[in-house]
Specification:
The chain is α/β, with parallel strands linked by helices and 303 residues long. It is built from 11 helices and 7 strands. It binds guanosine-5'-diphosphate and magnesium ion. Magnesium ion binds next to helix 5.
């Protein structure tokens, strides 16, 4: 289920997030490890100053391990506490150790006044990034719904994770970065948003071009692209871009009656197989190549 983001939806999400943030000490932000720049929300930092913050590069099982390490390094250098995570198979204890680390000072301060502090945390992220799966993983049971079905909201409840940590069971929904066309297009590759500007075929062609840069061998092998197939950026010719989808059709035998290439089918297959991780572990952004390098830092050390 995809949400079409209009200003009204964003305003509502922002209002709800403000309300949720008021109730917590800690913000656990999830981004997609395949797109650590584009899958973050630039407004979040401004909304949670003073809160402890940890960033999890979720779905790291689908991302390139070396790229993930590079991103973690880049985030760490700008003061963001960042770690890879796999909300389906990862160890909950790994995430708990990180949370314990970022709240240690605060908990100690309460303890020095004789108070045992129960830390309250909110999981936030764009649609489909794995917020519900993350909450389930940490709480060790299916407490949150892993789907984007609307209408299953209940009253917010606290999920007790350890003796000293509670999570809000309703994750904080972040609106995706749709003001930036590059980010919007990449989020559309993942299925996070529906790209309203590009049709599916143009989107799939554009993904193929990016794959020829990020994972050329995997893309060529999976979609039987000719050895000479280059990313459109390198070729710079519109007509050559279009031929990538034709090459997929030729390789898979996708033809309509009359012999015309079934590029609609090819586009769907390219997007589906990429989303399902069938090309292997691929990251589409590197920390050096984006403006996202100057990552938003959350959580001043002052209390
Ligand atoms: N491969 C992989 N899939 C994940 C991971 N986390 C979540 N998913 C899947 O991504 C989809 C969206 O997850 P969900 O928790 O509903 O996302 P939410 O919209 O942020 O709550 C579901 O199909 C999950 O099974 C992960 O770490 N790895
Ligand atoms: Mg969810």
């Amino acid at each position: 289920m995809q949400i079409q983001w209009y200003p009204g939806h964003m305003a509502k999400a922002r209002r709800q997030l403000r309300e949720q943030l008021r109730q917590v000490d800690v913000v656990l932000e999830l981004c997609d490890a395949r797109l650590p720049g584009s899958s973050r929300n630039p407004d979040l930092a401004g909304m949670c100053s003073g809160k402890r913050h940890a960033l999890f590069l979720n779905k790291s099982d689908l991302a390139d391990a070396r790229a993930t390490q590079a991103w973690v390094g880049a985030f760490t250098r700008v003061g963001v506490c960042a770690s890879p995570f796999d909300a389906l198979r990862g160890r909950a204890q790994d995430a708990l150790n990180i949370i314990e680390e970022i709240v240690r000072e605060m908990v100690a301060r309460y303890a020095s006044r004789g108070v045992r502090k129960t830390v309250r945390a909110l999981v936030v992220g764009v649609p489909n990034v794995g917020k519900s799966a993350f909450i389930n993983r940490l709480s060790g049971r299916a407490a949150a719904h892993t789907s984007d079905r609307p209408g299953v909201t209940r009253a917010p409840q606290w999920v007790r994770v350890t003796d000293d940590l509670e999570l809000l069971d309703t994750p904080g929904l972040l609106w995706p970065r749709i003001d930036d066309p590059n980010a919007a297009r990449r989020l559309a590759y993942l299925g996070t948003i529906r790209d309203t500007i590009l049709d599916q075929e143009t989107l799939a062609e554009s993904l193929l071009e990016e794959l020829l840069i990020a994972a050329p061998d995997a893309a060529r092998a999976r979609f039987k692209l000719p050895d000479g197939a280059l990313a459109g950026n390198e070729l710079g010719e519109e007509s050559d871009k279009a031929s990538l989808l034709d090459a997929v059709c030729a390789g898979r035998g996708f033809r309509l009656s009359g012999g015309r290439m079934d590029t609609t089918r090819a586009a769907a297959i390219v997007l589906d197989e990429f989303r399902a991780g069938k090309l292997g572990r691929i990251t589409l952004e590197t920390p050096g190549d984006a403006q996202y390098d100057k990552s938003t830092k959350i959580g001043k050390r002052a209390d």
